[in-house]
Amino acid sequence: MVNKQKPVTKEMVAAQAGVSKTTVSFVLNNNPSISEATRKKVLQIVDQLGYQPNTNARNLSSKKTRTICIVLPELGHIFEDPYFARAIGGVYDEVEAADYRLILKKASFEFAKDKEYLNLFRRKEIAGMLYVGSTLDDQYLAEFVDTGFPFILVNSYLPGINIPFVISDNVTAAYVATHHLIELGHTRIGHIAGSRNTTTAIDRIAGYRKALEEAGIGFDPDFIAEGHYNKNMASAATRRLFELSERPTAIFAGNDMMALGVLDAASTLGLRVPEDCALVGGDNIEISQFTNPPLTTIDQPIYEVSRTAIRTLFELISGEILPSEARKMTPTQLIVRKSCGAKSGVENGKRVGAAGAK
Questions:
Q1: 49: Cβ–Cβ under 8 A, 6 or more apart, which residues?
Q2: pLDDT tens string 26-51
Q3: Highest-confidence range of 54-63, 71-80, 180-189, by mean pLDDT?
């Protein structure tokens, strides 16, 4: 009687190497995020066990099960927005390295009404889905709860709805930004907020208020104006703040595009930054270091957030983690440049005040 040897599986390689199955996949697909030490260790086990990837099965299933869908809000010129461009870039790099395909969908009215977000899974067209830029209006996504479909929100969450997410620590980010302005002697600090139907804006307002409260500075609701993550709307909102009888001497903008609007408004009114109004932005897009003056900002690494999100999605797809384990928060950092008017001795561009995950 012939004794057939049990075929070596990816799970066996992972167990022998002491890593996850996803890590084995990344090594076999030359993902650059894997350290050289881990790569050598996994490849050594692959050789020892004689593991052979089932390329035929992979090719047969690739059109259906090796496709990831990324959903974006239905906004005009969204692909020109630095935030979304970096988010998509992080996802794409990981998807390509893992030998998956990527499709894009917009969260249109029809997308929600026709339940396309669920039907893509039911038709077995995708293995998993990410949603970048969801709002509190997206309550329909609650239908994902208990479906078992691998789905993750990127840099947002829905309060009270048990959906996996990967986000930046927005509360601490705003707290650090506001606290930095307080340390520079400011007590009248305005905030240009994002759209209040997003958890990012809500959390950043909470961090802003927390810093004021801890410093014994009374909260003035007139010092908050909504810029809706838009440069022109932020410029108009800033002009309203500057028209107050006692205008702010410093402003924390919820993202850098809105900070650009603050700079425009100040220039239009003949005000100097930071001499007449100190300024801190909110996500460290590339242009922030080239503004006049260079922008002090919170480094919100959306590229890394999206990479973490897609890696977590792969773990959900493979069954390595449960949805309850797929909630992660990434740290942010304050980057000091000239727009805040930091005291002499603070190095231009120095990263200070690390805001860690709670």
A1: 8, 12, 13, 16
A2: 887 766 678 888 888 888 888 788 77
A3: 180-189
